[in-house]
Every structure is written in C-alpha cells, then in structure tokens.
Amino acid sequence: MVVDFLIIGSGIAGLSSALKLAEKFPEKKVLILTKEKEDDSNTKYAQGGIAVVTDFVKDNFDKHINDTLIAGDGLCNKDIVEIVIKEGRIRVDELIHWGTHFDKDDKGTYKLGKEGGHSENRVLHHKDITGFEIERALLSAIHKTDNIQMSSQHFVIDLITQHHLGRIITRATKDIKCYGVYVLNKNTNHIEKILAKTTILATGGFGQVYKSTTNPTIATGDGVAMVYRAKGRVGNMEFVQFHPTALYEPTVSPSFLITEAVRGDGGILRNQSGEDFMERYDPRKSLAPRDIVARAIDHEMKIHGHDFVYLDCRHMNSENFKHHFPNIYKKCQSIGIDVFKDMIPVVPAQHYACGGIEVDSYGRTSIHHLYACGECSNTGLHGANRLASNSLLEAIVFSHRIFEHASSVIDEIEDFEDIFPEWNADGTSHPKEMVMITQSMRELKDLMSSYVGIVRNNIRLKRAQERLYLLFKETEEMYNTTTISPQLCELRNLITVGYLIVRSALLRKESRGLHYTTDYLNKKSFAEQSIL
C-alpha cells in the first residue's frame, strides 16, 4: 500500500492533523494506523483540561508564558513557549468548531479551572473527562471525511529507511529518509509494508515502563523506540513526570487519576496525621508544580513509612464537586469512599513524558519526511517539567504546524520506486512460552520503579543500566529467533525507552525539575538538553 500521508496514533495530535490534511487535499490518501481500537489513546484519559488564555481581563499571554517557564525550571525553549501559548487560542477554537463541548456557566461563559503552577484560572474542561470529549468530537469529524482511512488493530514495528536497502546508517548520517513503516496487521497476523511520502508519529507516551502509571496499556513508547532504532534523535528523556495524586489501589493498573483540578478547586493534601504538609515544602502549598508536590508526597510517605497520603475534599461544595468531577465521585463511591465524609487516599504515579523525539518548530524530526507531535515528541515547551494542562495545547498547536509544513512540501516530494523488501521472517518460530515475555516485562517495570523513579542517585541508575542490558540481550535474541508479536515488540520498545531514560539521567549532573538526584542536590548548571 502507498499513501500520501501516514499518521500513526489516534489521539488529539494525530486526528487533528489528519482532518486538516484531508480537507486541504481531498484527492490524496490519508491513512491513520492505531494499534488497538480507534479511541485508545492517552488523549482519551486526560481529565483536567486544556490550558489557554481566554479571559483577557484577568489573564494574558505573558502570565501563561511565565508560568510555563517557571514550571520548566530553566530548560524550556522560550520561542516555542511563546508559539504554543499565543497560537493555542485559535487551535482551541478549531476544536470547538469540530464539536468539542467545554463547560459553561448559566450565562454561557466558559468555566475556567486552575491547576498547579498556574497563576490564573485558564483551564477549559468538560467535567472531568476533557480528553474523552475531545476524542469523541475528533473521531466524529474523522468518520465524516471520505479520504481518511482509519485502520485499527495495526501495530507498527519499524520505520522504513535506507537501512532496509542495506545502507549503513549511523546517528551522524545527514540524509536519513523515512519511506513508511512495517506493520503487524493483528486481524490477519501478517506483517505488511506501507509506504508513504509523509509519515507523522503521534504515538503517545511510555508510562507502561513503570509499575504504577495513569497511562493506558497502549503507552509503550513505540514511536520513541522506533526513531531511536532508525538513528533519529531523542532528547530530555530523564524528565518523567509523576502525577502527585493517583487513587491508591495497589492491585489496579493503570492507576485512576485524581485530576489536579480537584486541588485547584480547593482540595488539600494531608498526611495520615491529618497535617497540611505542603506548607512545609512550598508557599503555593497543594498547588505547587507537579514535580514539587510529587517529591513532597514521596518524602512524607518515606519518613512516616506510609503507602499513601490523603486528598481532603470534605470541605468542598458537594453539588459543585459532583458536577465538575462526576467520574471521580463515582469511582470513589465504587470503592466505598464518600468524598464528603472520607479523605481520598492518593499516591504519585507516572503520568507524562516531557522528553521524546527531537523536533523543530514545525514538528520535523532529524529524519526526512518524518514528523512527530504530541507526547512522543520533545518540542522544548515543557523543559524539565510540564505545566498542568499544557499537553493538549501543545498537541493541537504542533499538529497544525506539521499540517502547514507538510502541505507546503508534499508536491515537491518525488514519487519513489518500491524497492524495499517485504518483511523477512525466515528462521523464526513461534515462542514456546509467553512467560518469558511477561516475566521480562515484570522485571523491567520493577527495576524502573525501584531505581529510576521520583528520587534517584547514580548507584540506583547504574544498577538499572546493568539490569536493562541483560534484559536487552535476552529480548533481542528472542526477537531475532521467534515470530513477531505485539507483546514482544512492546517489551522491546519499553526496554529501549528505559535505557534512554537511564542514560539521560546519568548524563545530567544536576537536580532539575523532574530529575531529582541525591548526588547533585545543590548543583544547577543550566546544562543544555541531553540529546541522544
């Protein structure tokens, strides 16, 4: 199969770029691949909302820019921050045009939430399922667009580059080009070759590298791993954001998120003695940026020997809570917690990847004809720590900028001859036992959670690196000798992601933002981004 535009991923980034490309080029083929169902994406699980300046009486772009820079702890690209914040308002209007409903008051004015690190109320939301609502609206628009093909149950294995023609490629190679992908059709269990003039990666995050995460099971870092294997550039992988308040349910995965908007509406973090402990850590208390709050909770749990802290909502207006957070209310009820009588047990869980595939201001990667946007990319917006509810904003701004650039060059890309080989599975056989894959996955999650979590040091990181190398060798041998399966590919991708996180963390000789190491507590060198 040959298409003009190939988009991998069906979240806000992938769907919005597909809609714009299809509308501008009705005669061209737009193909979206997603490895599970069409609505399975990190976007779907975003609760809080999308941060954008709409109230220009109390708020302005400079305030939002400054809040983002402060949260990013000196490593944001200021030019990118200005682009995203200033262009974001127009892009949000497009979401509304496509049918997204954000909550309004009785006068028809948008309700604006406030989350950690924000100086003003500026978060547009749809109850506590904003991502679900955005996903619904975009998929509805996709289904009305004739020249978009959506193919679910298609697991992308690798990018096709000159490497597949026998050429030796290194990270120093200047003219690496992407010609499409090899993909496992899970419906037929056959590996297909899909060629494309333009490929857009919108593959989401990598939360499943950790034992406790708010990410869905599909978040296995596929895009980042594929680009790294293809000798593309990735960066800032050490900056892994842990959301401070996931519901404490030890046997449940993924973790249920208690959105930061609950604290924005007045929820207070307390330790198991009932103390409002955040006042000891930051003057912004429970509304400090996520890295500070997550470390504070982690410290409280360690010094007291507890498995969780509490989020106190008992003083909040019950009707407002039920209206704004209906799903959180129902979830707590389902496990016997009355939020107006009981405090909610919470614990930090991996939530967001601030690093990823290196891109420029138009979403271009270091590989020609390959773009990346959304959580799989590293745009420079987040720096060392993402400001709450900036992720959806980044995704729609960069999907538009990719649309602009890809549109301007698509007719200049010459047709290429299909000289690329079909996938070669010679010499492989079905694995005799899946337990090898599941046990390796369990080991990976355990070591990343134990050694590469909220607080780190070089001893832990080096131990993780050594264990990861053993897992890598075992998994590569399995990959080279057994038939391809999604489980094996996901394990392989997550091991690559784990390696990149550890290597990046070892390279950064300072504590900054989400990378907090006890070996460099007082050193801040304002080092350059770590590019691998």
Please name the defining characteristics of this protein.
4-stranded antiparallel β-sheet; 18 strands; 13 helices; Methane Monooxygenase Hydroxylase, Chain G, domain 1; 7-stranded mixed β-sheet; 532 residues; single chain; 3 domains; FAD/NAD(P)-binding domain; Flavocytochrome C3, Chain A, domain 1
Number of domains: 3
Radius of gyration: 22 Å
Biggest sheet record: 7 strands, mixed
The CATH topology assignment of the largest domain is FAD/NAD(P)-binding domain
CATH class of the largest domain reads Alpha Beta
Report, as a whole number of angstroms, the end-to-end distance.
32 Å
- Poorly predicted runs are 524-530
Share in β-strands? 15-25%
Number of strands: 18
What do you see in this structure?
The chain has 13 helices and 18 strands. By secondary structure, it is of the alpha/beta class. The protein has 3 domains: 2-238 and 354-412, FAD/NAD(P)-binding domain; 256-347, Alpha-Beta Complex (Flavocytochrome C3, Chain A, domain 1); 435-517, Up-down Bundle (Methane Monooxygenase Hydroxylase, Chain G, domain 1), CATH 1.20.58. Strands 1, 2, 5, 6, 7, 8 and 15 form a 7-stranded mixed beta sheet that branches. It has a 4-stranded antiparallel beta sheet with strand order 10-13-12-11, with helices on one face.
Layout of strands and helices, then pairs:
Layout: E1 2-8, H1 12-24, E2 30-33, E3 50-51, H2 61-71, H3 78-97, E4 123-124, H4 130-143, E5 148-151, E6 154-160, E7 180-185, E8 190-201, H5 222-229, E9 234-235, E10 240-247, H6 261-264, E11 268-270, H7 290-304, E12 309-312, H8 318-324, H9 326-334, E13 344-353, E14 356-358, E15 370-372, E16 377-378, H10 391-409, H11 435-451, E17 455-456, H12 458-481, H13 486-507, E18 516-517
Parallel strand pairs: 1-2, 1-8, 2-5, 8-15, 14-16, 17-18
Antiparallel strand pairs: 3-4, 6-7, 7-8, 9-14, 10-13, 11-12, 12-13
Helix pairs in contact: 1-4, 1-10, 2-3, 3-10, 5-13, 8-9, 11-12, 11-13, 12-13
